[in-house]
Amino acid sequence: MEIKIMKNILDRNQNKANEVRTLLASKKVLMVNIISSPGAGKTTLLEQTLGEIGQKFRAGVIEGDITTDRDAQRLKKYNIPIVVINTEGGCHLDSHSISKVLDSFNLDDLDVLFVENVGNLICPSQFDLGETFKLAVVSTTEGDDKPGKYPMLFREAKAVILNKIDLIPYTNFSYDNFKTDLRKINAQIPLFEISCTRGDGMEGWYEWISGQIKTFKLQ
Amino acid sequence: MEIKIMKNILDRNQNKANEVRTLLASKKVLMVNIISSPGAGKTTLLEQTLGEIGQKFRAGVIEGDITTDRDAQRLKKYNIPIVVINTEGGCHLDSHSISKVLDSFNLDDLDVLFVENVGNLICPSQFDLGETFKLAVVSTTEGDDKPGKYPMLFREAKAVILNKIDLIPYTNFSYDNFKTDLRKINAQIPLFEISCTRGDGMEGWYEWISGQIKTFKLQ
Fold first, then answer.
1. How does DSSP assign B189-206, residue by residue?
2. A2, A99, A154, B152: least buried by Cβ within 10 Å?
3. CA dist list (Å): B200 to A64, B49, B192
4. Which of the 8 DSSP states describes residue A36?
5. What digits encode the pLDDT tens for the residues A76-114?
6. ipTM confidence
7. What domains, with CATH codes, occur in chain A?
8. Residue B152: closest CA among chain A residues belongs to which residue?
């Protein structure tokens, strides 16, 4: 019985996600659904990315958080449209809440909409928001076994960001183990090895995301 | 409608949890439900704790994992009873799965049962397993804002372990911010600041958990 209920919830989520995707495609707005564990660095990644590509592209942000607007506060300095969705205990965003807040944006004035999902490596992967693609963020301090233990996100994402590479010398993280696991699950997925706080590897990421936004405009 | 369904699921979970709690109390087995984000160090904490208190107490482990038995493999060396529950995508353990696997243990030969929940800071907090208490594990590399952003676990837990304090010098983690947040949510909760890999602060934790097991036996 529970399985049937879950299927209904997912079906309704999927229908609304398809609507969102159609709307955003008609407006040529790329939507990135950013998913990670708590504290892997989603907000810091957004801070750096908005600082870098904010001159070239018109960006907006949807901040998913259980109860606070702390992450949104950190992004206020960029003077871009930001909407917070508080899930009040809910463990992921869904397409209905995304659909509702899209009214708050002027989609004709946007090139890219970043959605920072609730910090959770599991549930957000199961709910299509109508995004163009999912972005998986994982940090070295979580250990090298995350793709193997939480495969769904790494199967679904269009790219993986491995953050906090500056901390590898102080941990037992193994690049080899991480990559072997990841390649078994998703052989071709682009992997960006970065340190958001120190700046390592950010250029490759900026170039890739800029390319994605440009390509989406031309489609 | 979804809210009513969720309430039914939680009610049924609570009923079974009460059964589990009654059974374990009759057998004088303390059950600890260990909850954290992915990669905060639950398994390493268990490794160290079993190595230290395994001589004094008879311990068993239930390993909750989405799809692998990797964590259980790491604990095999202690020659204690271990049962793996694979949730196959599920984001938390529930009391029904715990109840089923309790048959695999000889409860008359146990003092303590550690349950390593699925790596997730949100959903496991909402499902009572019949545990004696929840233990929150959080690592410094996740940032100092976790109690404020994910309050439910920190409200529900009987103790908090702050792991990876050896990495603080390489991050922007602030003890003050962390403690201020935590104390607002749960003013009296015991906090153990440790490094599982380097050994800092472990004595206080071993003493506390040993005291909990002894007290439970005498009740």
1. --EEE--TTT-TTHHHHH
2. A2
3. 35, 13, 10
4. -
5. 999 999 999 999 999 999 999 999 999 999 999 999 999
6. 0.92
7. 2-218 (3.40.50.300)
8. A89
